[in-house]
Structures are given as structure tokens and as C-alpha cells.
Write a structure and sequence with these properties.
The protein has 283 residues and is of the alpha+beta class. It has a domain at 204-265. It contains 7 helices and 4 strands. The chain has helices at residues 46-72, 79-86, 100-108, 120-165, 204-227, 234-264, 272-276; strands at 5-11, 14-20, 37-43, 111-115.
């Protein structure tokens, strides 16, 4: 009977069962000092011995589970209760002898044994289980922190992509009931002046006027991009159109100043703003 079982173990081609029998006293070296302990042994190839040992362990676990359920739950358990036990993420039951770790070791090990729940080795095993669970919880917490960090990085990347394309990518992580943020496409208006573009006039006054013209010409191009941006509200669009018109007017005034100075110095006037802006206006 299962209540008389002391241990189940295998080693290579040997499978043994230790049971308590009050009517007999074993004299083997393995059971020295224990009365009534009988060892029954079978021999076969290693794969068969492993299979027999696994089946015996599973059958004994089934016996322990039934014994515990009868002691704690007199009535029949519902399917919901069974499902909750199967999905429980907490500490394994103290009466459970075979854990997942033991099953993984079974495949690689050349021997194994089942220690009865009342022995000293079982207490040590339970302590090891608690330490293992604590270690796994620490790893879980560390992985959750790393996951949150990666999610924040992914959000930043998706927001940058949305600013460039005007459309939020589907990879943007969303929580339960969270709506994706509204991002407006960013218009590139930055510019850099090349030193080669600046005129090298001998007259410093004319050189300052020419440099000022080039700078305002870039400002007009930037104002035009902002005014041409789609999906703008009416007030913002009107304001940007006015800023673009003011920038064009300022550019014309700078060119007029350049031409007046050139005529004064006996040089021909230019039409730089007309060539730079060939009638392209915001409708």
C-alpha cells in the first residue's frame, strides 16, 4: 500500500521500492538501523527503468493529491477551482513532491529517488524550493523593469516616426483603453549658410547688404514650408500666410536697398528675389 512506501529510486538498470513491513526486518546495509524496511528490486534496460520510475512517481503523486483533497475539501471540487489551481503562479503546494525542476532533471539524470514527505531530506528540499522561488521572483521583477524601459524607448521611436511621416505607426504600444496620441507632422525648416554663398565684394557696405539678402532668402523659404503644411487650423494657417507675405516683402525691400546702392555706385541693379521666387505664392 502507498502508505507503507518509504522511497522509489532508480540507478542505471536498477529500479527499487522501499516499503515498511512490520513483519519483516531487513539486514541490508542500506536499511541498517531501520526496522521493518524491505527493498524490492527489478532490473531492465535504462530507458525502461526510467519509464517505470516516472510512472511510479506520477502514481504516488496522484495518491498524495487525493489524500490531501479528501482531508481539506470534503465535497467534490468544481472545474473553476481546478482551473484556478492550474493557473496559480504562487508557491507550489508543500505536499507536492515532484516539481518541474525534478522533471527536467529526470531526463538528464542517471538515477533518481522519491523521498518521503516526513524525512529530513524533504525539509531541505522545501527550503531549496523557497530559495528558488525567491530567486525567480527577483528575476521576474528585473525583467519587468527592463520591459518597461524598452516600451518607453519604443514609444519615443514611434513618436519620432509619426513626426516625420504624419502617421502613428501600428507598433506604438498602447495600454488597456488607451488612445494613441495625436502627433502633427514636423516640417523641416532648418537651414545652414555656406560660406561660399556669401559674396566677396570689395565694398563692405554692399557685402553686408548681400549677406543680409541671402539670410532673408532662407527665411522666406522656411516661412513658405510652414505656410504650406497641411492639416492646419484656420487661424494658424492664416497667421503663417501673413508671416510668409511679410518675409517676402522684407526680402523685396532688402533687394531694393541693394539696387539703390548699386545704382549710386554706378553698377547695374539685380533681380535676385524675382529669380529666387518665380511667382510661387500660397493660394
Amino acid at each position: 500500500q502507498w502508505k507503507q512506501l518509504e522511497n522509489l529510486y532508480f540507478r542505471e538498470k536498477k529500479f527499487a521500492v522501499e516499503v515498511h513491513d512490520p513483519r519483516r526486518i531487513s539486514v541490508s546495509r542500506r536499511t541498517f538501523g531501520q526496522s521493518g524496511l524491505v527493498v524490492q528490486t527489478w532490473y531492465a534496460n535504462t530507458s525502461l527503468i526510467k519509464s517505470i520510475w516516472v510512472m511510479a512517481i506520477s502514481q504516488h503523486q496522484f495518491y498524495l493529491d487525493r489524500k490531501q483533497s479528501k482531508a481539506k475539501i470534503p465535497s467534490a471540487r468544481s472545474l473553476d477551482d481546478i482551473a484556478m489551481d492550474l493557473t496559480e503562479m504562487g508557491t507550489p503546494k508543500l505536499s507536492k513532491v515532484v516539481t518541474l525542476e525534478a522533471k527536467n532533471q529526470l531526463i538528464m539524470a542517471s538515477n533518481g529517488s522519491l523521498i518521503s514527505s516526513g524525512s529530513q531530506d524533504s525539509e531541505v528540499s522545501e527550503e531549496q524550493k523557497k530559495e528558488k522561488i525567491t530567486e525567480l521572483k527577483k528575476k521576474e521583477k528585473l525583467l519587468q523593469e527592463q520591459l518597461l524601459q524598452k516600451v518607453e524607448e519604443l514609444k519615443k521611436i514611434c513618436l519620432r516616426e509619426a513626426e516625420l511621416t504624419g502617421k502613428m505607426p501600428k507598433e506604438y504600444p498602447l495600454g488597456a483603453g488607451e488612445e494613441p496620441p495625436q502627433v502633427r507632422r514636423r516640417v523641416g525648416t532648418a537651414f545652414k549658410l555656406d560660406d561660399n554663398l556669401l559674396p566677396s565684394e570689395e565694398d563692405p557696405t554692399l557685402q553686408d547688404l548681400e549677406s543680409n539678402f541671402i539670410i532673408h532668402q532662407k527665411l522666406v523659404e522656411a516661412a513658405k514650408k510652414l505656410a504650406s503644411e497641411p492639416d492646419l487650423c484656420k487661424n494658424v494657417k492664416k497667421k503663417r500666410k501673413q508671416e510668409y507675405a511679410d518675409a517676402v516683402k522684407k526680402l523685396q525691400e532688402i533687394e531694393n536697398s541693394i539696387n539703390e546702392y548699386r545704382i549710386k555706385c554706378g553698377k547695374k541693379p539685380t533681380q535676385k528675389s524675382t529669380l529666387a521666387l518665380p511667382g510661387e505664392r500660397i493660394p
